């Protein structure tokens, strides 16, 4: 398998620690088949007991739960280079679903091959563990934002986070990035109604922090957007350290 299929994930690891060529080769060799998913289709469903973990190669995906009344809560937005269900290696049964926000390509990693990595490569195992810890760190920040930040701060914080995470994946174009999400989906992620989302977007646009035309967000004032959001990227753990 050519490294180009997983190079975004390798880049993500290398922003946290040094990855040896042997470790990169292990990840390349462990990868399985590549599959495409249409927008709004499920990559993994709640209640599944998957035998593989899913590496997102292109597109955006959402982690979500649906309540008995049909309301949906998005609990994560995944970008290329993210393992959307690495935890299924140990948890076995999925307690939530993962859906394609856009058309997605994924690479499946059979659990048996991931187990072999944990037995053969302790440093690489720690890096994979680190990825699940960073997922948890992002989710904690979302909880803080939803519980204690204003709606404007919450929206601004999400845009800051995605700008940084997509930058790590090499998917920003200067101050701009693609974010093809509807206001209903954005409301599902932020815990707001679509009407409230629209009001907050108009408020932030009025502050000249960013523009959002079609599917493209363009940051006009990065420092101002960070200040508006009280955004501190430490929770993304982008420092290169020995793990």
Structural summary, described in words:
With 243 residues, the protein is α+β, with helices and mostly antiparallel strands. It has two domains: 139 residues, Jelly Rolls; 86 residues, Arc Repressor Mutant, subunit A (Orthogonal Bundle). It contains nine helices and eleven strands. The strands form three sheets. It has a four-stranded antiparallel beta sheet. A hairpin with a 2-residue loop joins strand 8 and strand 9.
Please provide a brief summary of the model.
This protein is of the alpha+beta class and 243 residues long.
Low-pLDDT ranges: none
Number of helices: 9
Number of strands: 11
Oligomeric description of these chains: single chain
Structural class: alpha+beta
Q: What is the CATH architecture descriptor of the largest domain?
A: Sandwich
| CATH fold name of the largest domain | Jelly Rolls
> What's the gyration radius in Å?
18 Å
Morphology call: globular
The ordered H/E elements are: HHEEEEEHEEHHHEEHHEEH
Strand content: 15-25%
What is the CATH level 1 assignment of the largest domain?
Mainly Beta
Could you list some keywords that capture this structure?
243 residues, alpha+beta, Jelly Rolls, Arc Repressor Mutant, subunit A, four-stranded antiparallel β-sheet
Blueprint (SSEs and pairs):
Elements: H1 7-14, H2 21-30, E1 34-37, E2 42-44, E3 52-58, E4 61-66, E5 72-78, H3 88-91, E6 97-100, E7 104-110, H4 111-120, H5 122-148, H6 151-168, E8 172-173, E9 176-178, H7 183-190, H8 194-206, E10 210-213, E11 216-219, H9 222-229
Antiparallel strand pairs: 1-7, 2-6, 3-7, 4-5, 4-6, 8-9, 9-11, 10-11
């Amino acid at each position: 398998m050519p490294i180009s299929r997983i190079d975004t994930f390798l880049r993500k690891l290398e922003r946290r620690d040094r990855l040896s060529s042997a470790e990169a080769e292990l990840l390349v060799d462990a990868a399985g088949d590549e599959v495409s998913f249409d927008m709004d289709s499920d990559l993994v469903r709640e209640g599944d007991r998957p035998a593989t973990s899913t590496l997102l190669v292109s597109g955006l995906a959402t982690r979500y739960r649906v309540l008995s009344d049909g309301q949906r809560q998005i609990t994560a937005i995944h970008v290329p280079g993210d393992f959307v269900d690495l935890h299924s290696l140990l948890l076995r049964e999925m307690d939530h679903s993962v859906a394609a926000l856009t058309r997605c390509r994924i690479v499946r990693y059979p659990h048996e091959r991931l187990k072999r990595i944990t037995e053969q490569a302790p440093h690489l195992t720690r890096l994979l563990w680190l990825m699940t810890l960073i997922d948890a760190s992002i989710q904690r920040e979302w909880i803080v934002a939803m519980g204690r930040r204003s709606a404007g701060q919450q929206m601004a914080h999400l845009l800051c986070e995605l700008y940084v995470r997509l930058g790590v994946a090499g998917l920003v174009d200067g101050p701009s990035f693609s974010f093809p999400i509807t206001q209903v989906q954005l409301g599902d992620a932020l815990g707001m109604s679509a009407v409230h989302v629209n009001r907050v977007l108009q408020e932030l646009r009025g502050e000249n922090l960013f523009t959002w035309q079609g599917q493209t967000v363009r940051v006009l004032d990065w420092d101002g957007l960070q200040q508006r959001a009280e955004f501190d990227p430490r929770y993304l753990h982008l420092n290169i350290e020995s793990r």
